Amino acid sequence: MTTITRDDLITSIQDALQYISYYHPADFIRAVGDAYEKEESQAAKDAMAQILINSRMCAEGQRPICQDTGIVNVFLSVGMDVRFETDMSLEDMVNEGVRRAYLLPDNVLRASVLADPAGARTNTKDNTPAVIHTELVVGDKVEIHVAAKGGGSEAKSKLAMLNPADSIVDWVIRTVPTMGAGWCPPGILGIGIGGTAEKAALLAKRSLMNPIDIYELRERGPASRIEELRLEIFDAVNALGIGAQGLGGLTTVLDVKIMDYPTHAANLPVAMIPNCAATRHAHFVLDGSGPASLSPPLLEDWPDITWSAADGARRVNLDTVTAEEVQTWKPGETLLLSGKMLTGRDAAHKRIRNTLENGDSLPDGVDFNGRFIYYVGPVDPVREEVVGPAGPTTATRMDGFTDMMLSKTGLLGMIGKAERGPVAIDAIAEHKAVYLMAVGGAAYLVSKAIRGAKVIAFEDLGMEAIHEFEVEDMPVTVAVDATGDSVHRSGPRIWQEKIGKIPLTEVL
After folding, report:
1. Dihedral, CA atoms, 316, 470, 375, 330, nearest 10 degrees?
2. What residues contact residue 152 under an 8 Å CB cut-off, 6+ apart?
3. pTM, whole model, 2 decimals?
4. CA gap 434, 427 in Å, rounded
5. What is the enclosing helix (H) or strand (E) of 7?
6. What are the backbone dihedrals phi and psi of residue 230, each rounded to the nearest 5 degrees, phi first?
7. d(CA 43, CA 198)
8. Do the Cβ atoms of 175 and 166 come closer than 8 Å?
9. How far apart are alpha carbons 36 and 42 in whole angstroms?
10. Could you report the per-residue pLDDT of 391-402, keeping only the tens digit for each?
11. Domains contained in the chain, CATH given
12. CA 355 and chain centroid, separation
């Protein structure tokens, strides 16, 4: 009989969540590094360079890889010969570890979890509760997989109840383009097949915690139908040309993981969940000898990459920029932004809409006329920081507010991640505005361009409050220009055609 103490379990969960907040798994770094070396699309190559540089900076500075520090997922395999020395339930111990991890003063993590999801949506302020899955197994140890899953990638999860005769590969290829780039490719696709609807989703999520090994699989050859499917889907998805950040390129997925389970004769449940460029997970075992120990990766694990947006980039002063100047910017062009911008996400936009519909004035200091808004929910600062990691959030969530913001506030442009939908693009073209894209998964790197930050409105919304940022040389890409031309439409189309003329073995 093995005894696991309360403090050992709590400490292990806390340490693992801190560890994965700033250390990418080494296999992920190698996979992105390999994809970077092979990439032929300059826009995608630049995006991956930022992701890799950000990753190394976070490892050195021990600060979050992404401002979205995720909702915690925990898979517990508890040996039946384990005894817990505790006055708390297993779930309470896990949640206490989460609480301590997210409130640790030296590396405060963003609290993103909201209670009453269909009602008041109130922030729990410590990122609890975690989503916990527990199984009893033979043995005298506790095996734990812990992950912090970002909302942008989780939002792109898909579930289908296919007919037994349907092609899983065809469903994936039809579905992936509908996911857009809000899941921050290049990443990993987790696919669950079989069981029931909820079992398929659980299998997809659990598969994402397995090591990246698609190239080893290709080299040795598939030994089962599941392994054949992994290779088929990997090749077919990359042939779509979506590329890093949806800008078009050779690599969209770094691996495809699949787990399956027996299912009813009338059913073929299939779930697909992507992991983003902020892939964060760890695995450890408790055997009664103390808390888990996770070894930090070596700095040599990161490729030696330098990147600068300065060459050929247009410098923009946000404090003096005009509508006429904005209309000269071209799709795909790199800009370096300096000056002041406001921030705002879903909750702030909703409150702005309600305020304007009621005929009221916006709070003092909230003036969008001739200005830019950055879709971001930053991490709280620590030590000498003016702001914590502050990468962009998925812009499509603000599409329904875009026409209102452009027509009623005088807003000149927006900054976020991934593509905009047709409603937003139409509004941008109608008002001759612009949408700029920052790289998702490079939050710490982006924060280094922010020289000043203060909350100016809606402080009760926490990380969703409206801030004013002062930035210097913040790199962005013109994603939708004043005519409505979108690089997220043109880029993948161009690269899908190019890849169709290149043998996949040559590409991958």
Report:
1. 0
2. 68, 182, 183, 184, 276, 393, 394, 417, 418, 440
3. 0.92
4. 10
5. helix 6-22
6. -55, -45
7. 38
8. no
9. 10
10. 999 999 999 999
11. 1-148+294-307 (no CATH), 151-277 (no CATH), 314-492 (3.20.130.10)
12. 31
